[in-house]
């Protein structure tokens, strides 16, 4: 349950960090599930140029029960329903493994413009939840927010000419200009939520954010689950984006009554 | 004057931050002198690919009296003489302007190996002084140190095969491997000194360091002056590096008796 102060901060700043929401046993279970999921071949698994190291995996909740349950965990789904609306479903689910010494930076952007362009999402009725699978510090490529930047709506509402791909929208294609960002940062500053593995960060689809490279010698894994209002479904005039990128199961999620791991253990008994 | 505690910390950690050593009037004078120096054409001025924005300028102290005096300022030269040896001269002087949204990251490296390869510097008898011409925070590409990493000597003592240039040693050419850095970071961690414009950071030529890109929408200017022991001069078997990169005036610097700006004003009276 979020406090009134936390709810106000989310709406004011566009994000909310909840440190160490998951305990170390739960984090270990999620890491093990990710390791297993990295072994599953398919288009949902994106590798680095070497073809071996996994950079990202989509839709792990379709294969790994820990992630299916985590999406319904009261500590995750509860705040989402409180901050957005009661009936939500997972629109996108991905785990990024930002490699040591790299992972490149992500340009400053707002998520919603990408989803409107690619999937005709009618409104910014989403919440992202970042789940730290590793400790996040200033050196391993944390997400950086411009707090409060979500309140002005979309800074740009088009995409770059000659964008790289129709299916995948690169942050570069929707990046803010230096001038746009300079104005926002002068007004609002920058901040990046950090914390131990197991921390959660809820953030708005309209908050301006970017990400630095991972300067550390260790990979850094981050799950991002995006929940969408079930009355705000995507649609396509042409080819829809792949099912592992834009999830098709849109029935509203029902919260578990206990933490995800306890729930799985209960089901196994 | 450094305290005993500061001296011990420098030797223990390989760097020492002195916050706000210079006041805002002094910083403004240094910035103005840099702006003037950016107008001076020549090989000492390195521009971005656009040929306009200045990325770095070498040897500004040869053209701008503020920088010539700063090199002898008791707050700068005093600690250098206390930490290294009494008779030092400036071996290299450069100002980097890390551009907004970029400046790329610098690979993890130790300075001394570069200087030994390029200039036959006999020993790591140098001290770097970083002078913050802008506020440095976690977002605008701060230098990151592995504290204590200077005490083990050189981690690698060769350069990469096929290095880019004989004259300019890119950090990539002498970069530590992920494994080397992982061991060091596991033992020592990482830290990056931050502070307002006018802060100074003294650091060892053997400390392992890197630098993230500048994620902010504002450029960030950093002066790095490297002092060398006058008994430790460079020599070349082939073509020496250019005079603006490796300074040839090796007479020992005499400290000013007052801060650099007051000294210049005194001289003008």
UniProtKB/TrEMBL annotation, chains A, B:
Q: Which domain of life is it from?
A: Bacteria
- The protein here is known as Phytanoyl-CoA dioxygenase
- Known Pfam families for this protein? PhyH
Q: Which SUPFAM superfamilies match?
A: Clavaminate synthase-like (SSF51197)
Taxonomic lineage is: Bacteria, Bacillati, Actinomycetota, Actinomycetes, Kitasatosporales
């Amino acid at each position: 349950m979020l406090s009134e102060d936390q709810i106000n901060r989310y709406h004011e700043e566009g994000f909310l960090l909840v440190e160490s929401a998951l305990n170390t046993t739960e984090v270990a279970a999620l890491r093990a599930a990710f390791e297993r999921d990295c072994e599953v071949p398919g288009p949902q698994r994106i590798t680095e140029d070497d073809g071996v190291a996994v950079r990202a995996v989509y839709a792990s909740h379709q294969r790994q029960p820990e992630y299916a349950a985590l999406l319904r965990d009261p500590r995750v789904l509860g705040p989402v329903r409180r901050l957005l609306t009661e009936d939500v479903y997972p629109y996108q689910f991905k785990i990024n493994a930002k490699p040591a010494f790299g992972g490149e930076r992500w340009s400053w952007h707002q998520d919603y413009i990408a989803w409107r362009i690619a999937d005709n999402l009618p409104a910014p009725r989403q919440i992202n939840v970042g789940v730290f699978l590793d400790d996040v510090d200033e050196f391993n490529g944390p997400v950086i927010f411009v707090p409060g930047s979500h309140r002005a709506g979309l800074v740009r509402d088009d995409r770059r000419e000659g964008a790289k791909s129709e299916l995948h929208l690169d942050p570069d294609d929707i990046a803010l200009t230096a001038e746009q960002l300079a104005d926002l940062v002068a007004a609002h500053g920058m901040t990046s939520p950090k914390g131990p593995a197991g921390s959660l960060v809820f953030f708005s689809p309209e908050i301006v954010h970017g990400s630095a490279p991972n300067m550390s010698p260790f990979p850094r894994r981050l799950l991002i689950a995006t929940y969408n209002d079930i009355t705000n479904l995507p649609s396509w005039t042409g080819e829809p984006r792949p099912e592992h990128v834009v999830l098709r199961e849109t029935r509203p999620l029902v919260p578990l009554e206990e933490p995800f791991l306890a729930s799985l253990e209960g089901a196994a008994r």
